[in-house]
Amino acid sequence: MISQRDPQDSQNLRMMLFSVQHEEKRQSTPQFEFRETRAAQDFFATCRSPETCCELTLQPLRRFPLDAAIIFSDILVVPQALGMEVVMVPGKGPTFPDPLKGVEDLLKLHQKVDVATELGYVFQAITLTRHKLEGKVPLIGFSGAPWTLMSYMIEGGGSNTMAKAKAWLYRHPEASHRLLTLLADVIVDYLVGQVAAGAQALQLFESHAGHLGPEQFSDFCLPYIRSIAKRVKAKLREDTLPVVPMIVFAKDAHYALEDLAQSGYDVIGLDWTIRPEDARQRIRKDITLQGNLDPCALYAPKEKIGELVKKMLEGFGTQRYIANLGHGLYPDMSPEHVGAFVDAVHAHSRHLNKCR
Questions:
Q1: Which of 103, 145, 278, 307 makes a 20 to 30 Å CA pair with 124?
Q2: What is the DSSP code (8-state) at residue 246?
Q3: Residues 267 and 322: beta-carbon distance below 8 Å
Q4: How many CA atoms lie within 13 Å of 141's alpha carbon, on the beta-carbon side?
């Protein structure tokens, strides 16, 4: 999916959703203004401006015939709500000047978080954007999942190994569970608040699942992924809010597809390293799949993009499927090639639906 942790890319394109059973007319603008708008101010200052987030959410819809919008924000606003400082360093990405070094550092975190106070700017952006969309496409909210957020908070930024964060799981399992529980509690309130503000679907990004093996995933990821879905849906019912569809994306967790299909989510996002046919065989037929074109395929000539999209759609089939990239766009990717991807999805979808 066009996804979370490519900090300098066109983040608002992180999750372009395309249904193979839906098409609409293209809207266009004279130019694609996303990068220009994003470059005008500090990244997290942008995240805290509801008006700017709204504009950045709407811009791709003016350029591409997308079937949904995802609110412009970042998964690391949750650690900020817990009292941690996060800055976006040019050429490096998100950085925690004072990451968690030892178990005693957990005491520095806010143990109770009022999401309406700490993350109200996200809710305001969602409400404003929902009004501006005027019902043209659904609006999606999101959060990072506990393990992914924990890994950033301990590593202090991105990492190829996640060795510091994984060391906690081995050395301090009880403290790790305390931190993951704290994060899950905030995430539940945060996601419910997004629905109250107007979000019509929710996505949970466990972007760093692939750094764990099956046993650690079962111990430190899956219980929290399940709990978040169960608690969010229960709280939505309790608050008489719509029980919206929920999507989970656990990158590289191929070993856990069956478990994810039983975790309470309506949609399972897939990265590009698994064959659609294999995922279909392993996941229940009542679960929708989302994905999964390799983002680097967008570097290919437009004709090749079309061929790759056709193969992807044929692999997934026309039922219970949302066409998407398998992860994030990169900063140097051409909007014209993004457009070629979108157009190919719609063109081949129409053909496949006629042939059903």
A1: 145
A2: E
A3: yes
A4: 26
3-state SS, residue 79: helix
How far apart are the C-alpha atoms of 28 and 55, rounded to whole Å?
A: 15
CA max distance for the chain:
61
Global pTM?
0.90
What sign does the dihedral 222-11-78-127 (CA atoms) show? Answer: negative
List, for residues 109-162, the tens digit of each pLDDT value: 999 999 999 999 999 999 999 999 999 999 999 999 999 999 999 999 999 999
Under DSSP, the state recorded for 328 is P
Secondary structure letter of residue 57 according to DSSP: H
Local structure of 137: helix, strand or coil: coil
User: 263 and 248 in contact (C-beta within 8 Å)?
Assistant: yes
Q: Which segments of the chain does DSSP mark as H helices, in order?
A: 34-38, 43-47, 50-63, 77-81, 115-118, 120-133, 146-155, 163-171, 173-197, 214-220, 222-238, 257-261, 276-282, 302-316, 335-355
pLDDT tens digit sequence for 211-250: 999 999 999 999 999 999 999 999 999 999 999 999 999 9
Q: Which residues sit opposite 296 in a β-bridge? A: none
Terminal Cα-to-Cα distance of the chain (whole angstroms): 26
